[in-house]
Please model this.
Amino acid sequence: GASAAEDRERTVNHPGGSEWVELCYDFTGDTPPGGSSALTFIFENGTNGDAANNPDAWTFYFDEIEQVASCPGGGGGGGSGVDVAENGDFETGDLTGWDAFNNQGSATTTSPGADGSTTAGFLTVSVPGNAVLKQANKGVGVVVPGDDVTVTFDWKGTQANGAEVSAQLFSEQGGGGVSATGVILNAASVFPADWTTVSMTFTAGADVGGGVTLEVVAICGGDAGCLAEVYIDNVSIEIN
Model:
């Protein structure tokens, strides 16, 4: 839901499918002068719909809209199974929804992706440095302290001479900083040659006013001939 003012917009990602999912938009502390008079729902903001030719992908149902004192949550329920990752499958063909940092390497996309998908994320570095892809500050207003956050993705890669890959989930505080860190890949030096699925569940920190951030980093130190190539696809960050 959103008003005309940008600071009163909220975004929640829905994984799609035939099952009803409860979404909650938290506007705590955000009271516009004179109150609110309307709600506007925008689906796939910035993308032209195509219900006439693709109704399965462009038909949306919503029901039981109500104002509540607070979003449910705290130990399971804030997001009710919502995937807050944006473009986690890279099927836009670019890094929409991702923050990329080259840092003497390269953070981009490549084709094909996992299991016949068109596109995957791709990190590579061959000199001292690192390359980073982030899903930054996702689920603001959805994730609440104590929620279960399940990170799932497919990955594979190639490494030589000391290359490593790390993946972490950060609970971002509303005023900056991190209230909790979950380690998914801890400077791993063994890269799977074939697509491999990783899935881990963490507890959101005591302050998640800034949402959660998934960070994947390919790292090379000073070893001669170091090479890290990391492919990542089908990323989800599910809030429960």
Observations:
- Residues 1-6 have pLDDT under 50 and may be disordered.
- The chain has no helices and eleven strands.
- The two ends are 21 Å apart (CA to CA).
